[in-house]
Amino acid sequence: MSGFINLVCDYKDPGDLAWSEILSALADEIPSSVRLIQTCVDSFDTVGTGFTVAQLARRARKSQGSNLLFVNCAPRRDNRSARSDNEGEGLVHVTLDNNAEILAVNSGFSLSFVKPYIKKITATKASAKGSQFRSRDNFPSVLAKCLAGDYGFLGDVLTLDAVPDAPPSAVAYLDSFGNIKTSIRTGSPLLSSLSAGNRVRVIIGNTVRYATVTGGSFSVPEGELAFAPGSSGYEAPYWELFKRGGSAWSEFGGPKTGSNIEVELAAD
Do 97 and 206 lie in a common domain? Predict the structure, then answer.
C-alpha cells in the first residue's frame, strides 16, 4: 500500500509535541509506505480548518489510489456546559462527489466548505470521550481501517443538516504572506455589482480600507490593496484581499478567521 494521507490539525506547528505524538501513534497503525502530509491551522480555528479541507480534498488528482484526509480541530464548543470524561464533538466519515474521503471531528465549520460536494456523511463508532487527546488515543485505528477499506467502524448515516453552511462573507484563511482569503467566491451575488477597476470600501471589524477590484492580485501598484480572485477554490476561486509589498492582514488590524467582511462600491 502506498500513497498519502493529508492530516489537518490545529496543532501549533510541525515540530509541536502534539504532532510528534499523533504521528507516532499513526506509525503504529499505518504502513510506512503511506506518507503523512501535515497541515497546521490555528488552535480551535474551524473556519480555517474548513477552508483548508476544501482546498486539499477538491484537488484534481494525477495519481490513482486513496484520497483520504484526517481532520482534527475539536474546540468542544458544541456543548458549553461541563463535559464528562473529556467528551467532544464526534468523528464522522464523509465521501465527496470526487470520491475523496474525510475522517473529521465534526466541529463548527470544519466541513462547511465541502458541504456542497458531500455525497454521504456517516457517524463513526469511534469513542468521542475517554481522552483529552482523542486524535492520538482513539482515532488512529479508525484511520487505518478506513485506509484499508474496512468500514466496520461506520455508524448511522447523517443528514447534511449536521454540517452548517460556510459563512458567506468572512475571513476564511490567513496565509503566511498576510493575504486574507475570504469566503466570498466567484459567482457570489455579493460580487455582482463589481467590475475590474472599481474602488471598493472594505470593512472588517472596526477597520475601513479601500481596495481596487482586479483580475489578479498583482494588478495594483506597490503598497496598494487589491480585491481579486485568489489561488484557492479551483473552478470558482475565492476572493482575496492582497496588499502588494505588504500584509493585508496587518492593514486590517490582524482580524481573526470568521470575522465578517463588508464590501461596497466606494463613493466617487
Answer: no
